[in-house]
Amino acid sequence: MHSKIRLAFEKMVGCSNIITQDLNNYNRDWMNKYVGQSQLVLTPQTSEHVSQILKYCNQNQLKVVPQSGNTGLVGGSVPINDEIVISMRKMNKIYEFDQNSAIITSESGVILQNLNDYLFEYKYQMPWDLGARGSCLLGGNISTNAGGLNVVKHGLLRNYIMGLEVVLPNGKILNLMNKNRKDNTGTDLKQLFIGSEGTLGIITKANVLCIPIPQEKKVFFLELQSFQDVIKVLQKVKKNEQVLAFEFMEGRILKKNKNRHSQNTLPFQFDDNKYYVLIEIAGQQLNVDQFSIEMMEFTQEIIINQNEKEAQFLWKLREEIAESMGKMGYVLKYDVSIPPDKFEWLVNQVYPQREGPFHVYYGHVGDGNVHINIVFESLEHLHKEEDKIELKLFGLVKSLGGSISAEHGIGQHKRKYMELQKGKDVLECLYSIKKLFDPNSIMNPNKLL
């Protein structure tokens, strides 16, 4: 990095907010698939810091990559070349929780779990939940419109964002903060920044509508004979307003993970040819016995947690899948939205009769979001097969009226398939919006579009 540029940033944010050594964690995503070459990381502490940084970068045609917790799976938060990384970790103030409106006001660099810890004393919680809750940041969640485990009940994150503060590429601080549930005053600009993956500006603050912590929760773990049985259970429970999460797993991956746990703690022995469902219900008053009776229509094998520790263990069996797949080799990870009854059909179209490398499908069947993981022994083999797999997979998803990205976003990974997903006319509109906000294309280059 040229000394003149570094000196300019020192005047803006101070030496303590500049990092030039040991940048591996900022240049590399957590799957080690995407690696950048940034030589400079800035850690602003205020919105004014972000404003000055972007204004200078815009004037001098310097490319930047906004970075939150760097927990993404599509390479959206790491540099491709030597872009300047703007890490939001130090902007981590929680300002207040308004008990009248149930809205929390926070900077964008707060860890999701820390927000929940803060809200706990008020008996409220954030309306979305992710496996990366202990490291992902609020701004990253918003800029990717994160999905997660509770969409089946609470819907998408964007429905709970009441207001934002965003710094535009020219340095202007756009005040879209708002604590009104009803605000019918023209185009809702904040929605443009939700899910835009840091390509239009940097989110620095947010107003988020929170939800009450339910008085009771129960986790049910079911063993089923076929995927058709999974769909039958889904059809039954979708009518129950207390269903908070509905997660599906193949027995193949659960069996591979058995050695991670003591055998006497496992709810089942797990069978390659069986299917498993985790259902969580939550509310102010639960009828657990009635729900159990309804589930017995589909299986005799049901585990119900007796305490919080058991609930956490059952959830761990589901949440550890992504990590365990990563330890098997080099993994292609896909998350697509399609009708839930087409999950098995889609996977069998990609790899008929279970041929090919080890692969499994699992995920949020309750909201139609399937995760497909394919493991390769080498990165070279992965790259050789990647385009062929994606052309087939994404073409099938499109034919079903689905989405090539249910919750992970586009990032570097899927940008070349955006025309397939959106069509030319929509894509042209997206490019026009990008040019309007970021005419010099300094924001997160070569991501999303």
Structure description:
- With 449 residues, the protein is of the alpha+beta class.
- It folds into four domains: 3-87, Uridine Diphospho-n-acetylenolpyruvylglucosamine Reductase, domain 2; 94-212, Uridine Diphospho-n-acetylenolpyruvylglucosamine Reductase, domain 3 (2-Layer Sandwich), CATH 3.30.465; 214-319, 2-Layer Sandwich (Alpha-Beta Plaits), CATH 3.30.70.2190; 329-408, Alpha-Beta Plaits (2-Layer Sandwich).
- 32% of the residues lie in helices and 21% in strands.
- It has helices at residues 3-13, 24-27, 47-59, 112-120, 138-143, 151-154, 190-193, 227-237, 251-256, 288-295, 308-328, 343-350, 379-399, 418-422, 424-437; strands at residues 18-19, 41-42, 64-67, 84-87, 94-98, 103-107, 124-125, 161-167, 173-176, 202-209, 211-212, 216-224, 243-250, 275-283, 302-304, 330-337, 359-364, 369-376.
- A seven-stranded antiparallel beta sheet has the order 15-12-14-13-17-18-16, with helices on both faces. Strands 5-6-10-8-9 form a five-stranded antiparallel beta sheet. A four-stranded mixed beta sheet has the order 1-2-4-3.
- The longest helix has 21 residues, at 308-328.
- The two termini are 27 Å apart.
- This is FAD-binding PCMH-type domain-containing protein.
Spans where pLDDT lies below 50 across 5 or more residues? none
Averaged pLDDT, please? 94
Q: Portion of residues in helices?
A: 25-40%
Q: Radius of gyration from the CA trace?
A: 23 Å
| CATH architecture assignment name of the largest domain | 2-Layer Sandwich
Instruction: Tell me the structural class.
Output: alpha+beta
Q: Count up the helices.
A: 15
Write out the strand line-up for the largest beta sheet, numbering strands in chain order.
15-12-14-13-17-18-16
The number of domains is 4
Sketch the major β-sheet.
7 strands, antiparallel
Which fold name is given in CATH as the topology of the largest domain? Answer: Uridine Diphospho-n-acetylenolpyruvylglucosamine Reductase, domain 3
Q: What share of the residues does DSSP label as strand, in percent? A: 15-25%
The shape, in one word, is: globular
Q: What is the CATH class name of the largest domain?
A: Alpha Beta
Quantity of strands, as a count: 18
Organism: Paramecium sonneborni
GO molecular function: FAD binding; oxidoreductase activity
InterPro entries: FAD-bd_oxidored_4_C, FAD-bd_PCMH, FAD-oxidored/transferase_4, Oxid_FAD_bind_N
Pfam families: FAD-oxidase_C, FAD_binding_4
